[in-house]
Design brief:
There is one protein chain. By secondary structure, the protein is an alpha+beta fold. It has two domains: 112 residues, Orthogonal Bundle (Arc Repressor Mutant, subunit A), CATH 1.10.10.10; 82 residues, no CATH class. It is 32% helix and 24% strand. A hairpin with a 4-residue loop joins strand 2 and strand 3. Helix 1 crosses helix 3. The longest helix has 32 residues. The two termini are 32 Å apart. 20% of the residues are buried.
């Protein structure tokens, strides 16, 4: 779903871009590419526009659930970065509102519609499952000692069965499927010096030229070449807390006939 904010900024969560369009909607005046973490944070806030999301929920759904280390400092820095992004795109209103000692919300004063002309869902998906009902009326009756021993034995047998299945699955994987390696989805962006350039984000055609220019600039800085038969990969890495902008990552890889890669030469623009 693509969102239009205050009629001038188009936000596409699929590729993490914020695009400023002119009055005719024909030309891209400016565009900002968000890091995956900033993209998740903004998408979550927009889906719950006008509702305060607690800090703990934001840290869980933007960082913890993706195996990233979360902190209030990181959250504050990403919120500040998103505010600067919107200011750079000409939105004078505060897009993200701070609710002291609670969390953040996307301003309800900003108009948001989807590209299909519909407003965002009024009831977005819940951030967490509702707490179970543990009223005294639903509490289980106490079991006699013999019943408790039986239950423990059944739990132990079930656990042993699960371990056995897991071990069998591990062995079968290495016996039958160890050679089948899966990779993260990649998308063709264009070509540089005869080598295909892939990104790990879906992106619109009007962003490809800027991406190829960034890749070529990074390769020159790092003295990376592109021999015949190699492929180029590009992505934006999340930056540490002391850096407000994402880190471009470029890698030149040499594919083998079986779908694997012999080696890669990589570079970070840190």
């Amino acid at each position: 779903m693509v969102y239009r904010i205050n009629r001038t900024v188009i936000y596409n969560p699929d590729d993490g871009t914020l695009t400023l369009v002119d009055d005719s909607d024909q030309d891209c005046v400016g565009e900002i590419s968000l890091t995956p973490t900033a993209n998740r944070l903004l998408h979550l806030l927009i889906m719950h526009q006008g509702s305060v999301i607690e800090r703990e929920a934001l840290l869980e759904h933007v960082w913890d659930n993706y195996g990233l280390k979360s902190s209030n400092n990181s959250l504050n820095q990403y919120v500040s970065m998103l505010r600067r992004n919107f200011a750079d795109l000409g939105l004078e209103e505060a897009a993200i509102v701070t609710v002291p000692r609670t969390g953040f919300m996307f301003s309800q004063d900003l108009e948001i519609v989807t590209e299909a002309g519909q407003s965002p869902p009024v009831s977005p998906p819940p951030l967490s499952a509702p707490a179970p009902d543990i009223s005294p009326l639903s509490a289980p009756e106490p079991q006699p000692p013999s019943a408790r021993r039986t239950s423990k034995a059944r739990l132990l047998l079930a656990a042993l069965a699960l371990v056995t299945v897991a071990n069998l699955g591990y062995l079968l994987y290495h016996m039958l499927g160890a050679e089948h390696v899966s990779y993260e989805a990649r998308y063709l962006t264009g070509e540089l010096h005869g080598c295909p350039v892939y990104s790990f984000y879906r992106s619109s055609a009007n962003t490809h030229k800027a991406t190829l220019a960034e890749v070529e600039h990074q390769m020159k800085l790092s003295d990376l070449s592109c021999p015949a038969g190699s492929e180029i990969y590009y992505r934006l890495q999340d930056a540490p807390d002391d850096r407000p902008t994402p880190i471009p990552f470029v890698s030149v890889c040499y594919p083998l006939a079986d779908g694997r890669y012999a080696k890669c030469h990589s570079s970070y623009a840190y």
